[in-house]
Amino acid sequence: MATLEALLHDRLAPAFEAVAGARVDPSLRRSQHADFQADAALALAKRLGRPPREIAADVLGSARLDGLVATAEVSGPGFINLTLADDALGPLLGAMSRDERLGVPRVEAPETVLVDYSAPNVAKEMHVGHLRSTVIGDAAVRVLDWLGHRVLRANHLGDWGTPFGMLIEHLADEGESGAAGELSLGDLNAFYQAARAKFDTDETFRERSRSRVVALQSGDPGTRHMWRLLVDESERHFLVLYDLLGVRLTDGDFRGESFYNDMLAPVVAELDRLGLLRVSEGAQVVYPAGFTGRGGEPLPLIVRKSDGGFGYPATDLAAIRFRTAELGATRLLYVVGLPQSQHFAMVFEVAREAGWLTPPARAEHVGFGSILGPDGKLFRSRAGDTVKLGALLDEAIARAAALIAEKSPDLDPETSAAVARDVGIGALKYADLSNDRTRDYVFDWDRMISFEGDTGPYLQYARARILSIFRRGGVTPPHDLAAIPVTAPPERALAIELLGFTGVVAEVGESLEFHRLAGYLFRLATVFTAFYERCPVLRAEGSVRESRLALCDLTARVLGRGLTLLGIGTPDRM
Ligand code: ARG
């Protein structure tokens, strides 16, 4: 189904072309004063050496707008204001309502998109940065999948490298079923910190840890066994959190750094063969074009350290090569915090120079800002250490449960527990996704877990309330209308908002700016509220009642689909 913008574009573009003597994008957008406005005349004025109002008038003189536009007029310095014909909206809404996909087509050219997200580190608790990556990555997976792409989920677990020397050595000391409980790993953070403390204070432990790294890398069976225990235990712990979060990540999506271990030496050898490798202070490095330090000196990407170890960058290079060559991915998305921007920019450039990332294949760093506490500093627990994700999710659900108990005391216990989970987790996710991804945002329980304002619970409630209209009226909304006629201004406003869904989803599939989808849903809910206050639905009669019911239904379906695309639960009653 075509978007309103596309329909208007097709009518106006030929007229602009006729006036300008060249192709011109009419530059359409939603308007405060009419339904839409086209701004292109202003930019053309200079080129044509004519006043913009005159150009706009000429365009309107030759544009064929019948059947779609009711009134078109030049306004201000040379905008074209367009008011759609009521008759044009009805059939478009009918088509949207009959379509299971609500008018959103599958992409014409599906791609293999790989989403690298979550990626916590073994034997460490996930922190709020991993929460952002998990929530944003999940939304990317859902949107791209729904648009018809082939989506590969990649959980690039931090399961390799020098810290494993001390972790394994500590496990060996404690014994696999040591005093601290099963595998001594009950509390991963405590286990990590205990290992760290020994490493920092005990010289012989440090020495043992170093030889442990060598044993791990050379594949010593006993060492590998203990490493596996650590990884398995961590994966179990992460899967519990994923389940609670309701994200699509599964057991099969873990492909940690260790997976690429055997590819690291060949990757560096190939860089050497390609003539890209240099030696700097004993390390093997690549100088990607365009990267310089403060003093203008070229910046190295270290692919092999002076001690012979490979690191994070080499692993990411091997992963790119694997993902494009073996998995056939053409769009690689890295949902990782913005502090790693330079790392990814350099890795992508080296991969391009090495020929592992050639068009149509490309990579994007889907970066995000930090979560801040009320003091504007990095979000921390009251004790001052990093916030544990498990505790955070539990608190979200508990707070939501209190709110639900107050608002809907009549729900049976089972429903109310399920709703509390949807609302608590949904509130967290919405607070994250409704903010511009690249900005920091302040974590605020009271603001996010509320039925008022721009929140997840508000949108969930807006949808549930519409479903309750149908329940109350004992009606099944019509899904087969040829047209949904609209006439009253609040109906029209709602209609135009609904018809904007297609464009928003398509745009978000490209930009991965999920706050645009969140903002759209919030606007839709607001416009719906205005409609519902002014236009009686169940009390209306005949065809008016029918089309208003259909508008309610479309709104509920768009809200439901939109929330689902963001990974937010949609309780039917609450
Ligand atoms: N484990 C890393 C961290 O916690 C994130 C990994 C992101 N993915 C990647 N391919 N480098 O910072």
TrEMBL record:
Residues 459-574 form the DALR anticodon binding domain. It catalyses: tRNA(Arg) + L-arginine + ATP = L-arginyl-tRNA(Arg) + AMP + diphosphate. Residues 2-84 form the Arginyl tRNA synthetase N-terminal domain. SMART domains: Arg_tRNA_synt_N, DALR_1. The keyword Membrane does not apply. Keywords: Aminoacyl-tRNA synthetase, ATP-binding, Cytoplasm, Ligase, Nucleotide-binding, Protein biosynthesis. It is found in: Cytoplasm. GO terms for cellular component: cytoplasm. Its main location: cytoplasm. The keyword Aminoacyl-tRNA synthetase applies. GO terms for molecular function: arginine-tRNA ligase activity; ATP binding. It is an enzyme of class 6 (ligase). Its EC number is 6.1.1.19. PANTHER family: ARGININE--TRNA LIGASE, CYTOPLASMIC, ARGINYL-TRNA SYNTHETASE. Belongs to the class-I aminoacyl-tRNA synthetase family. Monomer. This is Arginine--tRNA ligase.
